Amino acid sequence: MKQSQLFGKTLREDPKDEVSANAKLLERGGFIYKTMAGVYDYLPLGWRVLEKIKGIIREEMNAIGGQEVSMTTLQPKERWEKTARWKELGEEVMYQFKDHSGREIGLAATHEEPLTEIALRSIHSYKDLPLFIYQMQTKFRDELRAKSGLIRGRELLMKDLYSFHKDEKDFKHFYFNTVDKAYKKVFQSCGLDVYVTEAAGGSFTKEHTHEYQVLSEAGEDLIFYCSGCRFAQNKEISSFKIGDKCPKCKGEIQSSKSIEVGNIFPLGIKYSKSLGLVYSDEKGGKEFVTMGSYGIGVSRLMGTIVEVYHDEMGIIWPEAVAPFKVHLLELKSSESAVKNFAVKLYKDLLAKGVEVLYDDRSDKTAGEKFADSDLVGIPWRIVISEKTVEKKRIEVKKRLDKGVKLISVADFFKKINV
Amino acid sequence: MKQSQLFGKTLREDPKDEVSANAKLLERGGFIYKTMAGVYDYLPLGWRVLEKIKGIIREEMNAIGGQEVSMTTLQPKERWEKTARWKELGEEVMYQFKDHSGREIGLAATHEEPLTEIALRSIHSYKDLPLFIYQMQTKFRDELRAKSGLIRGRELLMKDLYSFHKDEKDFKHFYFNTVDKAYKKVFQSCGLDVYVTEAAGGSFTKEHTHEYQVLSEAGEDLIFYCSGCRFAQNKEISSFKIGDKCPKCKGEIQSSKSIEVGNIFPLGIKYSKSLGLVYSDEKGGKEFVTMGSYGIGVSRLMGTIVEVYHDEMGIIWPEAVAPFKVHLLELKSSESAVKNFAVKLYKDLLAKGVEVLYDDRSDKTAGEKFADSDLVGIPWRIVISEKTVEKKRIEVKKRLDKGVKLISVADFFKKINV
After folding, report:
1. Is residue A406 part of a domain?
2. B2: nearest CA partner in chain A
3. Is the Cβ pair A74, B41 closer than 8 Å?
4. pLDDT digits (tens, 9 = 90+) for A369-385
5. Which of A309, A332, B67, B81 is buried deepest, with most CB atoms within 10 A?
6. Rounded Cα–Cα distance for residues A290 and A273 (Å)
7. How far is CA A43 from the centre of its chain?
């Protein structure tokens, strides 16, 4: 992509109404546009990052047998009255209104009710179980405070997986082994170090649920954890304090603010009972289906990565989620050899399937180009200038490197394995 | 994918509350689930078809320089008051309501206002033009009547492209050449024969707009057209009647109901004027940006394909949009050789990258499997039975073939080029 044609320009100043680093840097870098508090548009750079994250999640969900669907945003009141959540969610986060004919409608803040209803048509026998259904879909939540950029959105992209099982044993295996492993792979691919944190189960389970927490001062959670054995508890259930002995490894308990990037949640038979989801077991008896739900905040993940990976100059994308792999900067020159060199390298990189953003802008100084490159945070920066062309080399720098290297194009291709 | 594990079972009976063929067949086939009139969930089979269609559209949009973004559903009232469309759309199709804090919000039914506002940050000079921005995103429209399945939805998936130009000449070239060609490719790839139909321009252009119409009794439009030279006009602007001479080729004018699968629309400077989108021209003067908008109903396209491609037994997917390429049916047998043969073929097909749905269900008769296969409409049907295994052959039939062929696996691979 040529940067002269890229939709979404960088801004010199931080947006005035943002406090969080992710919102400031993503808006300044031209990744997102703020329509309202907690409601962001994704411009081409941001859209590319989001697609990368979705790809990572989709791969792991498919690998554990997940089937992708897409459920609706518009929701009829009647469906949510069966679980008493029309009133409960309506008082908190669910947008609810009447359509032109007077019918009461809500915007889906989560999808347990719709999927359980849909499953009535697919689950009849123990032979139909287990089932793992997921989607990546926009959720709407009327959050009181939405001031952490992509960390807490009113319109947010989520991956929500739901599982259906014949019994607790089958559920627990999927929950503690299959999903937990897949989640850890997802976060690792995104470059994030997570603490699997015990948390409260809400009103219908006495067991703990589990949150995937990333240590960050931008977080709204507070966890107590042991960096040795990775034991962690959310403040809401924890009786530990800083300096206590870890109950598992006798290490020292620490505390930190953190961002919840995912959670896994036993649903028991709450929804199957309310909506009548039963199956015939091997002996012909009728049993309620045991369920679990498993969320990952996709847009929140994007915000979290920026919170963890940035410095005073801008974002530092981990390669797997970067909008482009290479940022090719052509510096202004009266010699046509510079442009020719840059154009040829751009085409060669594209031909090798490398995602490259080519800063071909003729009205920007070298300083402006360097500043934009640091802000946008693409992993590899290449500079083509009169000096490099003369030496038949290119100037290469990774985003966090202090110095630059002058190497041949062939050596750079080797470095990035193309 | 093994059919025994597929989420979304086929139904023997038509859903009672549907009248259109696309809704009946897609719901019976397990592609969609009806949450409300005009509001459908996409189950795994339907989700796959939708992704295929999105892939076709995305390829053509990228090929003409389109940059993909994702704009928000939640929209602030103030933005839409600048173009007086808060009231205009609010009376018709826009869902509008107050959030918990009393702020007035609408659900986006289209995205001219948001994108024009966002473009204020990116378009300053003639050097920033032209720009082509698109998204594939859910739109919300409170349609009075929503009884044609996916043809007219309240929650619908659309591809909307917007173009920004320095003048009418540049706009017209993009409109009449670039987009028109890309749209024809999209519809051709989906197996649809479209008439580019002149239609009324609405309140702000005296020129015609152009609709891409597919002849179908399920359509809500009526067009007058010439099958010889492809001249076509929407009834709303046409002065022709059946049997008239075509004004272009002297052929005979015919008439048909039709489905509008896409449209292209000159916006002139309506939105740039209302929202202040100006650029500096070569001489330093200020000009309003000329715009166009270009829609394709993605979910409507799925419904239209079913309207065009079905028979009394079910759907007949064109290969490019089929949820799977091959439907592999294993018929019940006490001989393990049948299952072994089927499993091996299933694995070989997967290894060759062929998308295959493997009907491994042990509780279905041959008749039920054949009926489901005709209903779901996957292009290639393969049957493995005691008879075929004995002859070391497989039974192959394309969805519309009358008879079957017994051929070797190697010959089948050749047939599908793998």
Report:
1. yes
2. A65
3. no
4. 999 999 999 999 999 99
5. B67
6. 10
7. 16
Residue numbers in B near A277 (CB within 8 A): none
In a domain, B119, yes or no: yes
Same domain, B44 and B121: yes
Distance CA A146, CA A17 (A): 12
The partner residues of B279 in beta bridges, in order of sequence, read B287
The answer to whether residues A39 and A66 belong to one domain is yes
CA-nearest residue to B41 within chain A is A71
Length of chain A in terms of residues written: 418
Q: What is the CATH number of the domain that holds A359?
A: 3.40.50.800
Q: Which residues of A touch B144 (CB under 8 A)?
A: 100
Count: domains in chain B: 2
Is the whole-model pTM more than 0.90? yes
Cβ–Cβ below 8 Å for B70 and A42: yes
Inter-chain residue contact B155 with A33, CB threshold 8 Å: no
List the domain range (segments joined by +) for residue A196: 3-73+108-311
User: Could you tell me if residue B94 is inside a domain?
Assistant: no
From B289, B311, B333, give the residue that closes a domain.
B311
Q: Quick one: what percent of chain A has pLDDT higher than 70?
A: 99
With respect to residue A368, please indicate whether it lies within any of the assigned structural domains.
Answer: yes
DSSP letter string, B178-221: IIHHHHHHHHHHTT--EEEEEE--TTS-SS-EEEEEEE-TT-SE
**Minimal Cα distance from A40: which residue of B?**
B72
ipTM of the complex: 0.97
- The DSSP 8-state label assigned to residue A102 in this structure reads S
Instruction: Choose one of A272, A288, A311: the last residue of a domain.
Output: A311
Q: Tell which B residues from 86 to 145 touch A, by Cβ distance under 8 Å.
A: 95-100, 105, 107, 114, 118-119, 121-122, 127, 131, 133, 138, 140, 142, 144
